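Researcher: Checking consistency across runs. Here is ABC transporter substrate-binding protein again:
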Amino acid sequence: MLNRRSMLMGTAALGSGASLLSSVNAAHAADTSPIAVGAVLPMTGAAAADGVEFQNGLTMAIEEINAMGGVLGRPLELHVEDSSAMNAEIVSQAMQRLIDKYETPVIVNGYNFGTGMIEMDVAADNDIIFIHYNTLISHNTKFKSDPARYYGSFQGDPPEYYYGPGLLTYLNGLIDSGQWAPENKTIALVTSSAEYSIVIANAVRDQAKDYGWDVTLYETVGFPNNQWGPTLAKLRQEPPAVIAVTHFLPQDLAAFMTQFIPQPTNSLIYMQYGPSLPAFKDIGGDAVEGVLYSTVVGCLPDDYSEAFRATYRDKFGPNAAYLTGSQTYDGLWKWALSAAIAGGPGAPYEKEQMQKVAATMNMLVYRGVNGICNFDPDGQSATCYPAQTSDASLGMPHQFLQHQDLTTDPVLISPPAYAKGSFKLPPWMS
């Protein structure tokens, strides 16, 4: 398995004082022109907090890669377009501008929702590499419809579909291990109108009975939404064992908790993604203690990522969300290694070279700060551990975390191969 350290910093592996990239750079020193790296990020609007972190991750990766000589002696140069409302027209036009103006061979986005994955068509029409973290099964579906056309499009994390069976498996594990004894096995699902949220809620709903659970409520709210009174009234009328909120904006989820706590039910609360961001705790305060959440991508609290986490917060501030910045950081590192191995990044419309870079990206099992990025050839998204593979060395971990001590970061409680603590019963539950 290849990783950033062994490829770029591993002097012991090479038996000399130079890294692999430095050695290859020396052989390609003739061309020192910058390589444009494009990114279409929500720098304004409802998801601006994430957009800033996605840009931070790219900035940090570029500084590190350039310090090692760039890609085959060529430095990377970042160009960002604001996706703001994140619809198909805005995102596709922004990507095309980056290609036309800077001839960027690669675009690394965080997430942009509401696009219908039109980004993949832009990448295909221009023969560039496109990496994103939309976390959508629709990426996999579109890739499967025409793999030859969409060869250059990669989803850097597993799709949201795997949140469904992952949650049900985790809940049953809590019961089987004696960590939690619910009065019944009922789940209330609260989703927003966003595609990401709906797919997760539907995955839980459609498989619940197979895992021994009953869904007692399926509630859809607007996007965004911070007025939870009507939904909470329904939840309090028939309290479930689990309230699963698949809406994901941190400020909205914090509002849910501040409105829930004055009259709580005896229910575990599971939320999607938003609790990983500082805004969730900043806005929710003590009300968020005990909340469970999970993510199929996020910086691991392990020894491998320790230097990244420290450097990220030193560089961008003590409250910077490295869990988000780590995504684009890893994506760009994997592309840079692949481009170097393939003999160069190529340029728009250079299909033969782009296919070489894409083939290398599929071959490279990359250990980054988010865990393993090993692309599933059937969908060209990162393989999910343990839902798609039982081998932790071949899949990106589906992480379950809990807000326990609000003076520190959330505690990673599953999967066991990565866990740093154990589940605690939330303070509002008897």
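Researcher: Does this match what you'd expect to see?
Model: One thing to look at in this run: The first helix runs from residue 4 to 9.
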